[in-house]
Amino acid sequence: MPIRTVVATAQGQGQRRNDFAHATEGELVIFPLVCDRDMANPDGGCGCNRSFEGVDSRKATTTAVVADVDLTYSEYVDAILASQHRFGLTNHRRGDAVEEADELLDMFKDWPVGTVVEKRGVRVQQRHIVRRTGGTPR
């Protein structure tokens, strides 16, 4: 049975002047560590307090999309833990990854698949896609 979580997307990029999409399209994303400089300001120069982080690429994006991903819960936790270890967080244990997985799964369990979301500090919200003339989403 698939899990409902979020993956990196370029959908909705460009609506904010400080958007970026460096993560690989479709990869699992988690919440990054937030630096002291950006802690109180989602629009700070680093960008860590307004972004999601790719589990495989370890690169950031300001937009993610709700998706049903063909992984078991255990595989999802393993992916998060492996990512933390690759990043050098070798003191993180399975319990830390379980906590992060549970937070993400609980947060998005009732969101419709295809919903584009953004992170603004501690708040995650739907990003409303603005259509330009000609119908091209932005």
TrEMBL record:
DUF7715 domain boundaries:
4-128
InterPro entries named among the record's database cross-references: DUF7715
Q: What name is this protein filed under?
A: DUF7715 domain-containing protein
